[in-house]
Amino acid sequence: MAVATSSVISPWQATLQHYNNRFYLKDHPSPCHSNPICNTFNFKRRILSSSKFNDHVVTDSSSSKLSPIETHFSISGCGCSWIQDNSMVHDSATSNGTWKRCSALPAKTVDVSSVSDLFEFICSGPLVDKIGITPEKVGQSIDKWLLYGSQLCRLFQLNELKLTIPQKARLYHYYIPVFVWCDDQIALHNSNFQDGDDVPPLVIGFSAPQGCGKTTLVFALDYLFKTTKRKSATISIDDFYLTAQGQAKLREENPGNALLEYRGNAGSHDLPFSVETLEALTKLTKDGMKMKVPRYDKSAYSGRGDRADATTWPEVEGPLKVILFEGWMLGFKSLPAEVVKAVDPQLETVNKNLEAYYDAWDKYINAWVVIKIKDPSYVYRWRLQAEIAMRQAGKAGMSDDEVNDFVSRYLPAYKAYLPTLYAEGPSGSDPDRVLAIDIDEERNPILAN
Protein backbone atom coordinates (compact mmCIF):
# COMPACT_ATOMS: atom_id res chain seq x y z
CA MET A 1 0.00 0.00 0.00
CA ALA A 2 1.36 3.34 -0.98
CA VAL A 3 2.21 5.75 1.81
CA ALA A 4 0.54 9.13 1.53
CA THR A 5 2.94 12.02 1.11
CA SER A 6 2.73 14.45 4.02
CA SER A 7 1.53 17.91 3.11
CA VAL A 8 2.34 19.37 6.51
CA ILE A 9 4.42 22.51 6.35
CA SER A 10 6.09 24.46 9.12
CA PRO A 11 4.32 27.44 10.73
CA TRP A 12 6.66 29.96 9.17
CA GLN A 13 6.15 28.42 5.72
CA ALA A 14 2.39 28.58 6.12
CA THR A 15 2.60 32.14 7.33
CA LEU A 16 4.67 33.28 4.38
CA GLN A 17 2.42 31.44 1.95
CA HIS A 18 -0.55 33.23 3.50
CA TYR A 19 1.34 36.51 3.28
CA ASN A 20 1.96 35.92 -0.44
CA ASN A 21 -1.72 35.36 -1.09
CA ARG A 22 -2.82 38.23 1.11
CA PHE A 23 -0.82 40.90 -0.69
CA TYR A 24 -1.00 39.43 -4.21
CA LEU A 25 2.77 39.50 -4.68
CA LYS A 26 3.14 36.22 -6.53
CA ASP A 27 4.27 38.12 -9.57
CA HIS A 28 7.55 38.94 -7.80
CA PRO A 29 8.90 35.50 -6.87
CA SER A 30 12.43 34.57 -5.94
CA PRO A 31 13.68 31.51 -4.06
CA CYS A 32 13.96 31.73 -0.29
CA HIS A 33 16.71 29.55 1.20
CA SER A 34 15.99 26.99 -1.52
CA ASN A 35 12.47 26.50 -0.14
CA PRO A 36 10.04 26.07 -3.03
CA ILE A 37 6.96 27.44 -1.24
CA CYS A 38 8.56 30.55 0.19
CA ASN A 39 9.00 33.74 -1.79
CA THR A 40 11.03 36.79 -0.95
CA PHE A 41 9.73 40.22 -1.76
CA ASN A 42 11.18 43.59 -2.53
CA PHE A 43 8.76 45.49 -0.31
CA LYS A 44 10.51 48.84 -0.14
CA ARG A 45 7.57 51.28 0.07
CA ARG A 46 4.90 49.12 -1.62
CA ILE A 47 3.07 47.90 1.46
CA LEU A 48 3.80 50.82 3.75
CA SER A 49 2.36 53.29 1.29
CA SER A 50 -1.04 51.59 1.21
CA SER A 51 -4.02 53.36 2.75
CA LYS A 52 -4.46 50.51 5.21
CA PHE A 53 -1.16 51.23 6.89
CA ASN A 54 -1.46 54.98 6.69
CA ASP A 55 -4.57 54.70 8.87
CA HIS A 56 -2.28 53.73 11.73
CA VAL A 57 0.30 56.49 11.52
CA VAL A 58 0.50 60.22 12.01
CA THR A 59 0.68 61.92 8.64
CA ASP A 60 1.39 65.40 7.46
CA SER A 61 -1.30 67.03 5.35
CA SER A 62 1.23 67.99 2.71
CA SER A 63 2.89 64.62 2.44
CA SER A 64 2.08 60.93 2.56
CA LYS A 65 5.24 60.27 4.53
CA LEU A 66 5.40 59.72 8.26
CA SER A 67 5.75 62.95 10.19
CA PRO A 68 8.66 62.85 12.63
CA ILE A 69 7.89 63.74 16.23
CA GLU A 70 9.70 66.75 17.61
CA THR A 71 12.31 65.64 20.13
CA HIS A 72 15.36 66.89 21.94
CA PHE A 73 17.12 63.60 21.39
CA SER A 74 20.89 63.47 21.08
CA ILE A 75 22.98 60.45 20.23
CA SER A 76 25.87 61.53 22.46
CA GLY A 77 25.63 59.89 25.82
CA CYS A 78 22.21 58.37 25.21
CA GLY A 79 23.16 54.71 24.89
CA CYS A 80 22.80 54.69 21.10
CA SER A 81 26.23 53.31 20.22
CA TRP A 82 24.42 50.51 18.37
CA ILE A 83 23.57 53.03 15.65
CA GLN A 84 27.22 53.12 14.57
CA ASP A 85 28.82 50.18 16.39
CA ASN A 86 29.17 46.78 14.75
CA SER A 87 31.44 45.33 17.40
CA MET A 88 29.12 42.92 19.15
CA VAL A 89 25.69 41.41 18.76
CA HIS A 90 23.97 38.12 19.47
CA ASP A 91 23.52 36.05 16.37
CA SER A 92 21.52 32.86 15.87
CA ALA A 93 21.13 30.16 18.48
CA THR A 94 23.71 27.39 18.61
CA SER A 95 22.86 23.72 18.63
CA ASN A 96 22.89 23.50 22.43
CA GLY A 97 20.32 26.27 22.77
CA THR A 98 22.69 28.96 23.97
CA TRP A 99 23.45 32.17 22.12
CA LYS A 100 26.75 32.71 20.43
CA ARG A 101 28.42 36.11 20.51
CA CYS A 102 29.81 37.50 17.29
CA SER A 103 32.74 39.84 17.82
CA ALA A 104 34.16 42.17 15.18
CA LEU A 105 31.30 41.64 12.76
CA PRO A 106 31.88 42.99 9.28
CA ALA A 107 29.97 46.16 8.51
CA LYS A 108 27.83 44.36 5.96
CA THR A 109 24.23 45.34 5.41
CA VAL A 110 21.07 43.30 5.51
CA ASP A 111 18.29 43.77 3.00
CA VAL A 112 15.12 43.81 5.09
CA SER A 113 13.02 43.63 1.95
CA SER A 114 13.11 39.86 2.33
CA VAL A 115 10.07 39.19 4.49
CA SER A 116 11.01 35.56 4.92
CA ASP A 117 14.44 36.48 6.27
CA LEU A 118 12.93 39.08 8.57
CA PHE A 119 10.34 36.59 9.79
CA GLU A 120 13.04 34.11 10.75
CA PHE A 121 15.16 36.86 12.29
CA ILE A 122 12.29 38.04 14.50
CA CYS A 123 11.53 34.51 15.65
CA SER A 124 15.20 33.95 16.60
CA GLY A 125 15.22 36.86 19.06
CA PRO A 126 15.97 36.30 22.77
CA LEU A 127 12.71 37.95 23.89
CA VAL A 128 10.36 35.85 21.77
CA ASP A 129 9.48 33.28 24.42
CA LYS A 130 9.35 35.89 27.18
CA ILE A 131 6.59 37.88 25.52
CA GLY A 132 4.71 34.86 24.23
CA ILE A 133 5.37 35.39 20.54
CA THR A 134 4.84 32.30 18.39
CA PRO A 135 5.71 31.99 14.71
CA GLU A 136 1.99 32.07 13.96
CA LYS A 137 1.55 35.34 15.85
CA VAL A 138 4.54 36.90 14.13
CA GLY A 139 3.16 35.85 10.76
CA GLN A 140 -0.27 37.24 11.50
CA SER A 141 1.20 40.61 12.49
CA ILE A 142 4.21 40.82 10.16
CA ASP A 143 2.72 43.90 8.52
CA LYS A 144 2.86 45.70 11.87
CA TRP A 145 6.45 44.61 12.45
CA LEU A 146 7.36 46.08 9.08
CA LEU A 147 5.56 49.29 9.91
CA TYR A 148 7.20 49.59 13.34
CA GLY A 149 10.61 48.90 11.87
CA SER A 150 10.11 51.56 9.23
CA GLN A 151 9.02 54.10 11.84
CA LEU A 152 12.01 53.43 14.09
CA CYS A 153 14.38 53.69 11.16
CA ARG A 154 12.86 57.08 10.47
CA LEU A 155 13.26 58.08 14.11
CA PHE A 156 16.93 57.07 14.30
CA GLN A 157 17.65 58.18 10.72
CA LEU A 158 18.57 54.68 9.51
CA ASN A 159 18.18 53.22 6.04
CA GLU A 160 15.54 50.56 6.58
CA LEU A 161 16.65 48.64 3.49
CA LYS A 162 20.32 48.58 4.48
CA LEU A 163 20.54 47.89 8.19
CA THR A 164 23.68 46.56 9.83
CA ILE A 165 23.33 43.44 11.97
CA PRO A 166 23.46 45.37 15.30
CA GLN A 167 20.89 47.89 14.05
CA LYS A 168 18.55 45.16 12.89
CA ALA A 169 18.96 43.31 16.19
CA ARG A 170 18.29 46.40 18.27
CA LEU A 171 15.06 47.13 16.43
CA TYR A 172 13.63 43.65 15.86
CA HIS A 173 15.06 41.79 18.87
CA TYR A 174 14.59 44.54 21.43
CA TYR A 175 12.58 47.70 20.83
CA ILE A 176 9.74 46.23 18.77
CA PRO A 177 9.26 43.11 20.94
CA VAL A 178 9.04 45.34 24.03
CA PHE A 179 6.53 47.55 22.22
CA VAL A 180 4.43 44.50 21.30
CA TRP A 181 4.49 43.42 24.96
CA CYS A 182 3.46 46.92 26.11
CA ASP A 183 0.66 46.90 23.56
CA ASP A 184 -0.61 43.59 24.98
CA GLN A 185 -0.47 45.04 28.49
CA ILE A 186 -2.61 47.98 27.40
CA ALA A 187 -5.19 45.60 25.92
CA LEU A 188 -5.22 43.58 29.14
CA HIS A 189 -5.61 46.76 31.18
CA ASN A 190 -8.48 48.03 29.03
CA SER A 191 -10.31 44.69 29.30
CA ASN A 192 -10.92 45.41 32.98
CA PHE A 193 -13.27 48.29 32.13
CA GLN A 194 -16.75 48.48 30.63
CA ASP A 195 -17.74 50.42 27.53
CA GLY A 196 -18.26 54.04 28.46
CA ASP A 197 -15.97 53.93 31.49
CA ASP A 198 -13.25 56.49 31.98
CA VAL A 199 -10.21 54.27 31.44
CA PRO A 200 -7.11 55.59 33.19
CA PRO A 201 -3.86 55.24 31.27
CA LEU A 202 -1.75 52.19 31.93
CA VAL A 203 1.41 53.06 33.85
CA ILE A 204 4.42 50.97 32.79
CA GLY A 205 7.52 51.20 34.96
CA PHE A 206 10.99 50.76 33.46
CA SER A 207 13.52 49.84 36.12
CA ALA A 208 17.03 49.77 34.74
CA PRO A 209 20.54 50.83 35.77
CA GLN A 210 21.96 54.12 34.58
CA GLY A 211 23.51 54.10 31.15
CA CYS A 212 21.93 50.84 29.98
CA GLY A 213 19.79 52.55 27.34
CA LYS A 214 16.42 52.72 29.12
CA THR A 215 15.86 56.34 28.14
CA THR A 216 16.46 55.50 24.48
CA LEU A 217 14.12 52.50 24.78
CA VAL A 218 11.36 54.64 26.30
CA PHE A 219 12.01 57.30 23.66
CA ALA A 220 11.47 54.69 20.90
CA LEU A 221 8.34 53.28 22.54
CA ASP A 222 6.84 56.74 22.99
CA TYR A 223 7.44 57.44 19.30
CA LEU A 224 5.73 54.20 18.27
CA PHE A 225 2.72 54.94 20.44
CA LYS A 226 2.36 58.41 18.99
CA THR A 227 2.76 57.27 15.39
CA THR A 228 0.07 54.63 15.96
CA LYS A 229 -2.22 57.33 17.32
CA ARG A 230 -2.15 56.35 20.98
CA LYS A 231 -1.47 59.28 23.28
CA SER A 232 1.38 58.65 25.69
CA ALA A 233 3.41 60.51 28.28
CA THR A 234 6.95 59.88 29.51
CA ILE A 235 8.30 60.72 32.93
CA SER A 236 11.47 59.89 34.81
CA ILE A 237 12.32 59.74 38.48
CA ASP A 238 14.80 62.48 37.60
CA ASP A 239 11.84 64.81 37.05
CA PHE A 240 11.03 64.55 40.76
CA TYR A 241 14.40 65.50 42.22
CA LEU A 242 14.36 68.10 44.96
CA THR A 243 14.90 71.69 43.92
CA ALA A 244 18.39 73.09 44.38
CA GLN A 245 17.26 74.57 47.69
CA GLY A 246 15.86 71.22 48.80
CA GLN A 247 19.07 69.44 47.87
CA ALA A 248 21.11 71.93 49.88
CA LYS A 249 18.91 71.29 52.90
CA LEU A 250 19.26 67.50 52.49
CA ARG A 251 23.03 67.88 52.33
CA GLU A 252 23.06 69.97 55.52
CA GLU A 253 20.90 67.44 57.35
CA ASN A 254 23.22 64.55 56.44
CA PRO A 255 26.76 65.89 56.88
CA GLY A 256 29.46 63.46 55.82
CA ASN A 257 27.05 61.11 54.00
CA ALA A 258 28.43 60.96 50.45
CA LEU A 259 25.33 59.10 49.25
CA LEU A 260 23.13 62.12 50.01
CA GLU A 261 25.58 64.86 49.10
CA TYR A 262 24.17 65.06 45.58
CA ARG A 263 20.95 64.05 43.87
CA GLY A 264 20.29 60.38 43.12
CA ASN A 265 19.61 58.15 46.09
CA ALA A 266 16.38 57.75 48.03
CA GLY A 267 15.77 60.95 49.96
CA SER A 268 16.75 63.29 47.14
CA HIS A 269 13.28 63.28 45.53
CA ASP A 270 10.20 65.41 46.16
CA LEU A 271 7.75 62.59 46.83
CA PRO A 272 4.61 64.72 47.38
CA PHE A 273 5.34 66.39 44.05
CA SER A 274 5.63 63.00 42.33
CA VAL A 275 2.31 61.86 43.82
CA GLU A 276 0.63 65.05 42.63
CA THR A 277 2.04 64.56 39.12
CA LEU A 278 1.15 60.87 38.81
CA GLU A 279 -2.36 61.45 40.14
CA ALA A 280 -2.94 64.22 37.63
CA LEU A 281 -1.55 62.21 34.70
CA THR A 282 -3.75 59.20 35.43
CA LYS A 283 -6.82 61.47 35.31
CA LEU A 284 -6.18 62.61 31.73
CA THR A 285 -8.94 60.39 30.33
CA LYS A 286 -10.86 62.77 28.07
CA ASP A 287 -10.26 64.82 24.94
CA GLY A 288 -9.13 68.35 25.65
CA MET A 289 -7.68 67.62 29.09
CA LYS A 290 -4.11 68.92 29.29
CA MET A 291 -1.28 69.30 31.75
CA LYS A 292 2.39 70.15 31.75
CA VAL A 293 4.81 67.42 32.78
CA PRO A 294 7.73 68.48 35.01
CA ARG A 295 11.32 68.27 33.83
CA TYR A 296 14.64 68.60 35.63
CA ASP A 297 17.61 70.68 34.49
CA LYS A 298 20.78 68.76 35.37
CA SER A 299 23.00 71.55 34.07
CA ALA A 300 21.76 74.18 36.54
CA TYR A 301 24.00 75.37 39.37
CA SER A 302 27.17 74.09 37.70
CA GLY A 303 25.81 70.59 37.36
CA ARG A 304 24.22 70.27 40.80
CA GLY A 305 20.86 70.65 39.08
CA ASP A 306 17.49 72.23 39.75
CA ARG A 307 13.91 71.77 38.65
CA ALA A 308 13.45 73.29 35.21
CA ASP A 309 11.34 76.39 34.84
CA ALA A 310 7.68 75.40 34.43
CA THR A 311 7.44 77.41 31.20
CA THR A 312 9.77 74.85 29.58
CA TRP A 313 7.83 71.75 30.62
CA PRO A 314 6.24 69.76 27.77
CA GLU A 315 2.47 69.57 27.62
CA VAL A 316 0.53 66.32 27.24
CA GLU A 317 -3.11 65.98 26.24
CA GLY A 318 -5.69 63.34 27.02
CA PRO A 319 -7.01 60.84 26.67
CA LEU A 320 -3.73 59.17 27.59
CA LYS A 321 -3.44 55.47 26.83
CA VAL A 322 -0.10 54.84 28.52
CA ILE A 323 2.41 56.49 30.83
CA LEU A 324 6.03 55.35 30.49
CA PHE A 325 7.78 55.89 33.84
CA GLU A 326 11.51 55.16 33.96
CA GLY A 327 14.18 55.23 36.61
CA TRP A 328 17.28 53.49 37.88
CA MET A 329 15.80 52.67 41.31
CA LEU A 330 12.15 52.03 40.50
CA GLY A 331 10.93 48.94 42.34
CA PHE A 332 13.68 48.94 44.97
CA LYS A 333 12.52 47.61 48.36
CA SER A 334 13.87 48.68 51.73
CA LEU A 335 15.85 45.94 53.46
CA PRO A 336 16.71 45.02 57.06
CA ALA A 337 19.18 47.51 58.53
CA GLU A 338 21.91 44.91 59.04
CA VAL A 339 21.81 44.00 55.35
CA VAL A 340 22.40 47.52 54.09
CA LYS A 341 24.98 48.27 56.79
CA ALA A 342 27.02 45.33 55.54
CA VAL A 343 27.09 46.94 52.09
CA ASP A 344 27.80 50.50 53.24
CA PRO A 345 26.98 52.10 56.63
CA GLN A 346 25.99 55.31 54.82
CA LEU A 347 23.21 53.38 53.11
CA GLU A 348 21.22 53.04 56.35
CA THR A 349 19.67 56.52 56.02
CA VAL A 350 18.96 55.93 52.33
CA ASN A 351 17.26 52.64 53.24
CA LYS A 352 14.96 54.38 55.74
CA ASN A 353 14.07 56.98 53.13
CA LEU A 354 13.22 54.22 50.66
CA GLU A 355 10.32 53.04 52.83
CA ALA A 356 8.19 55.95 51.59
CA TYR A 357 8.85 55.33 47.90
CA TYR A 358 6.34 52.56 47.31
CA ASP A 359 3.38 54.84 48.01
CA ALA A 360 4.92 57.66 45.97
CA TRP A 361 5.94 55.68 42.88
CA ASP A 362 5.57 51.93 42.71
CA LYS A 363 1.91 51.62 43.68
CA TYR A 364 0.95 53.60 40.57
CA ILE A 365 2.71 51.17 38.23
CA ASN A 366 0.52 48.49 36.64
CA ALA A 367 3.14 46.66 34.56
CA TRP A 368 6.91 46.52 34.68
CA VAL A 369 9.90 46.18 32.39
CA VAL A 370 12.97 45.26 34.44
CA ILE A 371 16.27 45.47 32.57
CA LYS A 372 18.80 43.26 34.34
CA ILE A 373 22.59 43.40 34.33
CA LYS A 374 25.07 40.82 35.54
CA ASP A 375 27.52 43.24 37.13
CA PRO A 376 26.76 46.73 38.54
CA SER A 377 30.25 47.82 37.47
CA TYR A 378 28.85 48.02 33.93
CA VAL A 379 27.37 51.35 35.03
CA TYR A 380 30.84 52.84 35.40
CA ARG A 381 31.85 51.78 31.89
CA TRP A 382 28.62 53.08 30.36
CA ARG A 383 28.88 56.42 32.12
CA LEU A 384 32.49 56.79 31.07
CA GLN A 385 31.53 56.09 27.45
CA ALA A 386 28.82 58.74 27.63
CA GLU A 387 31.13 61.38 29.07
CA ILE A 388 33.86 60.64 26.51
CA ALA A 389 31.28 60.98 23.74
CA MET A 390 30.16 64.30 25.15
CA ARG A 391 33.73 65.61 25.34
CA GLN A 392 34.44 64.48 21.78
CA ALA A 393 31.30 66.31 20.67
CA GLY A 394 32.67 69.50 22.21
CA LYS A 395 30.31 69.46 25.19
CA ALA A 396 31.19 69.67 28.85
CA GLY A 397 31.78 66.22 30.28
CA MET A 398 33.10 64.77 33.50
CA SER A 399 36.72 63.63 33.76
CA ASP A 400 37.46 59.96 34.38
CA ASP A 401 38.00 60.65 38.10
CA GLU A 402 34.75 62.58 38.30
CA VAL A 403 32.91 59.70 36.64
CA ASN A 404 34.37 57.30 39.18
CA ASP A 405 33.26 59.54 42.05
CA PHE A 406 29.79 60.00 40.54
CA VAL A 407 29.11 56.30 40.01
CA SER A 408 30.52 55.37 43.43
CA ARG A 409 27.57 57.17 45.02
CA TYR A 410 25.12 54.78 43.33
CA LEU A 411 26.96 51.46 43.53
CA PRO A 412 26.04 50.74 47.19
CA ALA A 413 22.34 50.92 46.30
CA TYR A 414 22.84 48.67 43.28
CA LYS A 415 24.70 46.10 45.34
CA ALA A 416 22.09 46.17 48.10
CA TYR A 417 18.83 46.27 46.15
CA LEU A 418 19.37 44.66 42.75
CA PRO A 419 19.54 41.06 44.05
CA THR A 420 16.12 41.40 45.68
CA LEU A 421 14.66 43.20 42.68
CA TYR A 422 15.85 40.45 40.35
CA ALA A 423 14.78 37.60 42.63
CA GLU A 424 11.40 38.92 43.80
CA GLY A 425 10.45 41.54 41.24
CA PRO A 426 9.54 45.18 41.92
CA SER A 427 7.78 46.03 45.15
CA GLY A 428 4.08 45.19 44.95
CA SER A 429 4.24 43.92 41.37
CA ASP A 430 2.21 41.14 39.76
CA PRO A 431 4.72 38.53 38.48
CA ASP A 432 2.53 37.95 35.42
CA ARG A 433 2.91 41.61 34.45
CA VAL A 434 6.68 41.87 34.72
CA LEU A 435 8.91 41.59 31.65
CA ALA A 436 12.49 40.89 32.79
CA ILE A 437 15.15 41.51 30.13
CA ASP A 438 18.75 40.40 30.66
CA ILE A 439 21.26 42.54 28.79
CA ASP A 440 24.99 42.16 28.29
CA GLU A 441 27.76 44.71 28.64
CA GLU A 442 26.98 46.00 25.15
CA ARG A 443 23.34 46.68 26.18
CA ASN A 444 22.00 43.86 23.99
CA PRO A 445 19.21 41.56 25.22
CA ILE A 446 20.37 38.01 25.87
CA LEU A 447 18.86 34.74 27.02
CA ALA A 448 18.91 34.42 30.80
CA ASN A 449 21.17 31.74 32.23
From TrEMBL:
It comes from the Eukaryota. GO terms for molecular function: glycerate kinase activity. It comes from Eutrema salsugineum (Saltwater cress). PANTHER family: URIDINE KINASE. InterPro entries: P-loop_NTPase. The lineage of its organism: Eukaryota, Viridiplantae, Streptophyta, Embryophyta, Tracheophyta. This is Phosphoribulokinase/uridine kinase domain-containing protein. GO terms for biological process: photorespiration.
